[in-house]
Write a structure and sequence with these properties.
The complex is a heterodimer.
Chain A: H1 6-25, H2 31-57, H3 61-81, E1 85-87, H4 91-116, H5 124-155, H6 157-165, H7 170-173, H8 175-195, H9 203-210, H10 215-247, E2 260-262
Chain B: E1 2-8, E2 11-17, E3 23-27, H1 34-41, E4 48-53, E5 56-57, H2 63-69, E6 70-73, H3 115-127, E7 133-137, H4 145-162, E8 165-169, H5 173-179, E9 182-187, E10 190-193
Parallel strand pairs in B: 3-8, 3-9, 6-7, 7-8
Antiparallel strand pairs in B: 1-2, 1-4, 4-5, 9-10
Classes of the chains: A mainly alpha, B alpha/beta.
Chain lengths: ~260, ~200
């Protein structure tokens, strides 16, 4: 494997800088955002590299759990930040975080124990990358689905209430919106699976190949990951939309849009 | 139906009894709480106080049971499926002709309907639940005089046939005088009984 040195990265960084200058010249006001994001990438990835290095040297369930928890909480915050209208109070944070915990964590632990069978099962070399990929994708699905759900509830409150007035249950009154929200949350991973290998070469597989792994082995891992991501995203999206849509109604099945607030 | 000390922001306390088969009219300028009152009775908004139907409290029934029995007709109707007929599961309570509608309208896409047609169809849709209480919020706002009379007659017929209690909200005092036995006026969230001479 070819190892990279600081000069290699500096060359790539200068390309990003050039892009920023170019967009500045063309008055696309995004260079600042671009540079901040690039800087975050460099800092965050360096830190996680160091953390993983330390973690690999001290394999202990408590340390792995701590990092996993940190990743979950950050992902939860990210889901909340992407909502145009989010739930007030703790709910805004909890709906996404709990759903990701239920889906990503469960699927990761299942895969580690049943499929990979490494000993101990929480070996960080497997556990952390797996969880990271699952969380990242589940986070996207949940964020899209929740945004869609709360947006639809806000836009179509008259329809929801009209259905309640006719004696429909809360879950009947939002059934179409729930379906659409879950659908839109799952579309990215479905598209990714459909295009994998034909249009795009997934990142994990390419990474393994770059690191010198035999392509067929890398492909097997990629297929496993794709399936796990699909299941994790699906379960997480289902959970988030179910919890979220229930939260839109009170115990007398009244639509409570005051539980949403604008960003 | 009995309403005891019904209160919410900008409304009440309202206490009122409507007998089975009675039509009670409420008029008043917009923004005084007429629609809020109907929404609270239908249990669509949180409120204090009690509403009872045949002696049973609202909270002792499930929301579905309550809203099926106490049906609210909002001023603007909403439709969520493509065709009119998709919204009718229990058959038609009243023939379409009674409301001046052609039978073919059931197969029409909702998008092609006029607001007057939608309003009359929404009334039919509500009546197909056979509600014991009708809460009507400007039920003829989008209608011409002939169709207004048809709706008034159909509601009168339904009220008598099913001994339904009706609360009819309208800004049109002449209409209230035609359809309602008792007439209240909503002023700043309070109901005021109207003397008989105002009804003429």
């Amino acid at each position: 494997m070819i190892t990279l040195n600081i000069v290699d990265l500096a060359i790539a960084a200068s390309l990003v800088l050039m892009l920023a200058l170019l967009s500045q010249r063309m008055q696309v006001h995004i260079s600042r955002q671009l540079l901040v994001a690039a800087l975050r990438t460099a800092i965050q990835l360096t830190l996680i590299g160091l953390v993983l290095k330390a973690l690999f040297a001290n394999v202990h369930l408590a340390w792995v759990s701590l990092l996993a928890l940190f990743m979950l909480l950050v992902a939860g915050r990210e889901v909340m930040a992407r909502q145009e209208r989010r739930f007030t109070g703790w709910w805004g944070y909890a709906v996404g975080t709990v759903s990701m915990f239920l889906s990503s964590f469960a699927v990761t632990v299942f895969a580690l124990i049943v499929i990979l069978g490494e000993s101990p099962w929480y070996t960080p070399q497997y556990a952390i990358p797996l969880l990271g990929m699952l969380l990242g994708n589940t986070m996207n699905g949940i964020a899209i689905a929740m945004d869609r759900l709360t947006h639809a509830a806000w836009e179509q409150r008259a329809v929801i209430e009209a259905r309640l007035m006719l004696g429909q249950r809360w879950d009947e009154a939002v059934s179409e919106m729930r379906r659409q929200a879950i659908h839109s949350g799952l579309i990215p991973i479905i598209n990714a699976m459909a295009a994998a290998g034909v249009v795009s070469l997934p990142g994990m597989m390419t990474g393994q190949i770059l690191a010198g792994a035999p392509p067929v082995e890398a492909v097997k891992y990629q297929i496993l990951i794709m399936f796990l991501i699909a299941v994790g995203t699906g379960l997480g999206t289902l959970a988030a939309v179910t919890i979220g849509s229930r939260r839109l109604f009170d115990e007398r099945q009244r639509l409570c849009l005051q539980r949403l607030r604008e960003k | 139906m009995q309403i005891k000390n019904l209160r919410r922001l900008m409304l009440g306390p309202v206490s009122l009894a409507v007998d089975a088969g009675e039509c009670l009219g409420i008029s008043g300028p917009s923004g005084t709480g007429k629609s809020l009152l109907l929404r609270a009775i239908a249990d669509l908004d949180p409120h204090d106080g009690e509403v009872l139907l045949d002696g049973v409290r609202c909270q002792d029934l499930t929301p579905v049971q309550w809203r099926t029995r106490v049906g609210l007709l909002p001023p603007e109707s909403c439709w969520w499926l493509p065709r009119v007929v998709d919204h009718f599961h229990n058959g038609l309570p009243v023939p379409l002709e009674v409301l001046g509608l052609a039978p073919a309208i059931l197969q029409e896409p909702v998008l092609r309907l006029s607001s007057g047609e939608k309003q009359r169809l929404a009334l039919l849709r509500l009546l197909s639940n056979h509600p014991r209480v009708l809460l009507l919020d400007e039920p003829t706002a989008n209608l011409d005089p002939a169709n207004t009379r048809r709706v008034e007659a159909a509601l009168d017929e339904y009220r008598r046939a099913h001994s339904a209690a009706v609360i009819w909200v309208s800004h049109d005092q002449a209409q209230i005088a035609r359809v309602a036995g008792r007439h209240f006026r909503m002023v700043k969230g309070q109901l005021q009984a109207q003397a008989a001479e105002h009804q003429a």
